[in-house]
């Protein structure tokens, strides 16, 4: 190990060991980069927009909540904003790794989520990532009120970080105190953060709870000294609060602090001890750990994810390969705690009320329902005239078709008078969105096909199509949410792939369109 905690400064390992660390990190970074890049290209949770906020880094990925559009057509009010910082041991990773989390945070909490990149170690060691993050936050705020406007509510800003990103989230406020034009961070959420440096691997393993030790070694443990070597320059004081938030004064941090630890994580005990110290319990985290701790009238909170490993909220094979039903239930419980904390400290109190106009949710209606029944049930709700027996038919003669056309125009005029012309203007009303969970979605997929007479061959008039987390070519689409437009027909470019879509210019035909899925898990 590179150092002992009593040495007070970080001591570089011997040259040969440093070479081995560099070699191991290089291999890990290469595999991680390839995997992350491929995953990002196939993401089911694309950002609403991307923006370059730093000249030498990649683009920030920005997620809007479903009741807001990036063009400001739905609302003009500023949004509570959450800056998201990815993990990866300070040495690897990219913002796209957290798309599945950030998309759901935006959808469930009604916040604008801005996922920031930062320069990676060992080429960019402490404190370079911190300054790069501050620079991007400042630039994002400077764009407010310009042609590149981001609707940021500067009175409600939070930061969330995962793993190494949790460390950066906890320490960045101390730099922001000295940064011009950057307001105070109101809330910090840190998931599985490293909060101190210099402990040996045996010390880290021994500090876990007896229940965690009984499960064997942690997959992260052997990588801790390698990542510390990459991030911490030799001679750096280990109790520097900008490096180790465990030693930060509470008055230098945000008003609201929420820390999540994974019980089987070697980093958990140090994070728990940090929170215990902040709430005045003199590091009495205890040998068996603490499942929950609260202080400062609930504004400081610790939650232990029981039975979970490091990065349990990410799709990492060593973590989720053998996830039990109990662990899945625990993961959902902690997810809900995170959402509630964000809503309490910087969320929009009216967001859930507004969603009552957005979400069309009727479990009984959708469960095991045929596609044609769903289409029929939503026709009136989607402001399309109900023609009854006078719907267009391919067998209509000219006189019948003319009569039906005149009748449709009359019904459209009646709807326009009642609901406004915008309701009939080529796009479905932006407030009509559908939220269903995975169980209901699967039941729809397994439901009977539409009536035989409604089926058409590929490339013609009607095809049964349901998209999952895909941005359509005609409508803005938020991950987990989607507009349903029954006046557009979509056709599948490849019957075996659901990612490829193109519109068919035949708006008078009916079809089944965006039925996205969100199951409420981070």
UniProtKB/TrEMBL annotation:
Gene3D superfamilies: alpha/beta hydrolase. InterPro entries: AB_hydrolase_3 (IPR013094), AB_hydrolase_fold (IPR029058), Carboxylest/Gibb_receptor (IPR050466). SUPFAM superfamilies: alpha/beta-Hydrolases. GO terms for molecular function: hydrolase activity. Residues 83-278 form the Alpha/beta hydrolase fold-3 domain. Transmembrane segments: none annotated. This is Alpha/beta hydrolase fold-3 domain-containing protein. It comes from Talaromyces pinophilus (Penicillium pinophilum).
């Amino acid at each position: 190990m590179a150092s002992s905690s009593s040495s007070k400064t970080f001591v570089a390992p011997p040259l040969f060991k440093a070479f081995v660390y560099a070699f191991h990190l290089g291999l890990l970074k290469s595999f991680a980069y390839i995997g992350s890049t491929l995953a990002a290209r196939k993401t089911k949770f694309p950002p609403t927009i991307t923006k370059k906020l730093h000249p030498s880094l990649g683009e920030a990925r920005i997620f809007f909540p479903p009741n807001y559009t990036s063009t400001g057509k739905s609302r003009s009010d500023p949004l509570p904003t959450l800056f998201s910082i990815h993990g990866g041991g300070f040495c690897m990773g990219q913002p796209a790794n957290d798309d599945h989390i950030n998309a759901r945070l935006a959808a469930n909490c009604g916040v604008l989520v801005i996922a920031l990149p930062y320069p990676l170690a060992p080429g960019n060691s402490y404190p370079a990532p911190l300054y790069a993050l501050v620079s991007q936050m400042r630039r994002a705020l400077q764009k407010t009120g310009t042609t590149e406007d981001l609707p940021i509510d500067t009175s409600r800003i939070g930061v969330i970080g995962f793993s190494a990103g949790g460390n950066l989230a906890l320490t960045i406020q101390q730099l922001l105190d000295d940064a011009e034009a950057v307001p105070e961070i109101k809330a910090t959420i840190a998931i599985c953060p490293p909060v101190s440096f210099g402990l040996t691997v045996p010390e880290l393993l021994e500090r876990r709870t007896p229940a965690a030790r009984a499960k064997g070694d942690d997959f992260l443990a052997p990588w801790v000294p390698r990542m510390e070597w990459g991030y911490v320059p030799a001679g750096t004081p280990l109790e520097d609060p900008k490096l180790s938030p465990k030693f930060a004064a509470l008055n230098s941090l945000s008003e609201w602090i929420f820390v999540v630890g994974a019980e089987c994580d070697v980093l958990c005990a140090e994070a728990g001890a940090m929170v215990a110290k902040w709430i005045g319990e003199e590091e009495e985290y205890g040998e068996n750990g603490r499942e929950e701790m609260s202080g400062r009238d609930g504004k400081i909170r610790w939650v232990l994810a029981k039975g979970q490993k490091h990065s349990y909220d990410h799709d990492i094979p060593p973590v989720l390969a053998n996830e039990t039903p109990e662990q899945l239930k625990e993961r959902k419980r902690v997810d809900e705690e995170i959402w509630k904390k964000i809503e309490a400290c910087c969320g929009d109190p009216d967001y859930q009320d507004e969603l009552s106009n957005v979400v069309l949710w009727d479990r009984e209606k959708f469960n095991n329902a045929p596609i044609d029944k769903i289409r029929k049930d939503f026709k009136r709700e989607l402001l399309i005239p109900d023609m009854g027996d006078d719907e267009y038919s391919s067998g209509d003669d000219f006189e019948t078709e003319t009569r039906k056309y005149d009748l449709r125009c009359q019904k459209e005029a009646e709807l326009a008078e009642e609901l406004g012309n915008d309701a009939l203007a080529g796009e479905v009303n932006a407030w009509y969105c559908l939220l269903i969970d995975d169980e209901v979605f699967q039941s729809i997929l397994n439901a009977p096909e539409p009536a035989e007479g409604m089926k058409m061959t590929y490339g013609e008039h009607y095809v049964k199509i349901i998209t999952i987390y895909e941005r359509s070519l005609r409508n803005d689409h938020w991950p987990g949410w989607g507009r349903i437009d029954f006046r557009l027909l979509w056709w599948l470019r490849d019957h075996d792939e659901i990612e490829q879509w193109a519109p068919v210019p035949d708006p008078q035909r009916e079809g089944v369109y965006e039925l996205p899925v969100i199951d409420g898990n981070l």
